[in-house]
Design brief:
By secondary structure, this protein is α/β, with parallel strands linked by helices. Helix content is about 50%, strand content about 5%. The strands form two sheets. It has a four-stranded mixed β-sheet with strand order 1-2-3-4, with no helix packed on it. A two-stranded parallel ribbon has the order 5-6. This is Glycoprotein Ib platelet subunit beta.
């Protein structure tokens, strides 16, 4: 895991180590840690007078801690699928796709190796924030020259050494296969991705038609339900009226029968 706070911590401790009596500058100590050659610094600390025993122990612990942190700092910000060394980020031959491509690179990157992967496009703005970047290897990838390649093309055209991109070619669509990405004309790239707009328009029309159809079905169901409810209400009202009428007739008949008796 990268250590985002180690850099300032190490600088502070290197300065402290120098203040505590190390005869070597912080940069020398740091290079010795990177080479694994720390023995000379330890021997120098062990030769200090016995009266400074506690100070000597503190210096040794600081020195060991700094060298333990060295591997963490070496990989600070390095993408997990790549390797980093001296400003070079090596991601070549890793079967990277546009989906698995790292979303960011260390800010001090000077060279990126992306060749011999399965890249079809680069995300917009991926390389824009790298002020120290000098070269990027992009050959050996199946670049799809539709709308998604416009960022890569514009980034190439902003570079000084265009010869480095003479082997970066399109693999599709068929009409642009084999063409150099940096020499593509924007209009022909846009023409090659018109089908996206056509498919999008067709999908929108189909969705709109289905929505209208669903609304019509709901409206028809409501009309049918209301008519059915109205019919049932009329039948219930008629039945109630007939019941009242039948009850009155029976009462009249009973009264006449009682009188005749």
């Amino acid at each position: 895991m990268p250590c985002p706070y180690c850099h300032s911590f190490v600088l502070d401790k290197l300065s402290l180590l120098s203040v505590l009596g190390s005869r070597h500058p912080p940069s020398s100590i740091w290079r010795s840690c990177s080479r694994g050659d720390i023995h000379s610094h330890e021997q120098q600390l062990l030769r200090r007078p016995e009266s400074t025993h506690n100070m000597r122990g503190l210096q040794l612990r600081l020195l060991q801690l700094l060298c333990l942190l060295r591997p963490l700092l070496a990989s600070e910000g390095c993408p997990s699928l790549c390797s980093c060394s001296a400003g070079t980020v090596t991601c070549s031959g890793r079967r990277l796709t546009s989906a698995s491509l790292p979303t960011a690179f260390p800010p001090d990157t000077t060279r990126i190796l992306l060749h011999d992967n399965q890249l079809t496009a680069l995300p917009n703005g991926l390389l824009d924030g790298l002020s120290k970047l000098r070269s990027v290897s992009l050959h050996g990838n199946p670049w799809v020259c539709d709308c998604g390649v416009l960022y890569l093309r514009s980034w190439m055209l902003r570079q000084h050494n265009l010869d480095a991109f003479r082997n970066v070619t399109c693999s599709s669509p068929p009409g642009l296969r084999g063409r150099l990405v940096m020499y593509l004309v924007e209009e022909e790239v846009l023409d090659s991705c018109q089908y996206w707009y056509c498919n999008l328009a067709l999908a929108s029309q189909v969705c709109l038609f289905l929505l209208i159809l669903a609304q019509a079905a709901v409206l028809a169901f409501l009309i049918y339900f209301l008519r059915r409810y109205e019919k049932l209400s009329r039948e219930a009202r008629r039945t109630t009226e007939e019941s009242f009428a039948g009850g009155d007739t029976e009462n009249d008949y009973t009264m006449l029968k009682d009188r005749s008796a």
